[in-house]
Write a structure and sequence with these properties.
The structure is a single chain. 47% of the residues lie in helices and 23% in strands. By secondary structure, it is an alpha+beta fold. It has two domains: 55 residues; 139 residues, Protein Transport Mog1p, Chain A. Strands 1-2-3-4-8-7-6-5 form an eight-stranded antiparallel β-sheet, sandwiched between helices. Helix 3 crosses helix 4. The chain is rod-shaped. The N and C termini lie far apart (130 Å). The structure holds zinc ion.
Length: 261
């Protein structure tokens, strides 16, 4: 065996893949050729160094899994669902989507039933907040008490005595007629000291407002409640029920209600 033949078999020799005959011939050559022996020894050390380092060079499992997943995605048609062992069993979208649908369904059911069961007070509050945000939103916009009350009375079918509340400082902004819980309710929106007061007027006995505190003021009886930042004052007179809703304090509301006297 000459040197070039030995070099050609170098890697097969190092990998232990040589037939017995070739193995004997290579070893015979290495015994007599120091040049090939140095080359073989160098390659053996280099290879063992390389092989030893392989475990340290292995990618972290997460990276490996991510790369394999990416390869799967590229290889598989978009609609197919590969059952690759590299894919994690838990797929957040598959698990969370049905939960999300159930939550949305429950929210719709609860919201709808809540809307159907709304208390009159909630509806009054909503309308007050709407009037507060824009008096232009009121159907009848006018600061003339006679004009607003005649507009309301035409639809309500009863006298409102609105003009009495539009004295001394309370500025009438407008009004409209609402349908609340099968009752026709007049709304007159006032402003005093830049703070709005919605005065709701309906027939006595309509629009029951539970859980209200009874308050006496100048020998008259009122009912008072506080909901969030709003105060509500209810009083009855001459067959009518008046409900004032405002951010004004209770005393200011009592003062507003007493102006009719
Ligand atoms: Zn040689």
């Amino acid at each position: 065996m000459n040197c070039s033949e030995a070099q050609r078999l170098l890697y097969d020799y190092l990998n232990g893949e040589l037939e017995q005959l070739d193995l004997s011939r290579v070893e015979s050559h290495l015994k007599v050729c120091s040049s090939c022996l140095r080359t073989f020894e160098f390659e053996r050390r280099f290879q063992s160094l390389f092989v030893d380092r392989i475990p340290e060079e292995t990618a972290p499992p997460e990276l490996r899994s991510a790369i394999l997943d990416r390869i799967d995605q590229l290889e598989q048609p978009r609609t197919s669902f590969p059952l690759s062992r590299k894919r994690p069993f838990f797929r957040p979208a598959l698990v969370l989507a049905p939960i999300g649908l159930v939550v949305v369904f429950l929210a719709i059911v609860l919201f709808t039933s809540d809307a159907n069961r709304k208390e009159p007070l909630d509806i009054l509050l909503q309308n007050h907040i709407r009037a507060e945000s824009s008096t232009e939103g009121l159907i009848y916009s006018s600061s003339d008490p006679q004009s607003v009350s005649s507009h309301l009375e035409r639809e309500l079918g009863f006298q409102t005595s609105l003009a009495a509340y539009a004295r001394s400082g309370a500025i009438l902004k407008g009004g409209e007629v609402l349908q609340i819980c099968n009752c026709k309710v007049g709304l007159a929106y006032f402003s005093t000291h830049e703070v709005g007061i919605s005065l709701f007027i309906c027939r006595q006995g309509e629009l029951t407002c539970p859980q209200m505190e009874t308050v006496s003021y100048r020998n008259r009886e009122y009912h008072f409640a506080s909901i969030r930042e709003f105060n509500l004052l209810v009083w009855e007179e001459e067959g009518l029920k008046f409900i004032a809703v405002s951010r004004h304090r209770r005393e200011a509301l009592l003062d507003f209600a007493d102006r009719r006297a």
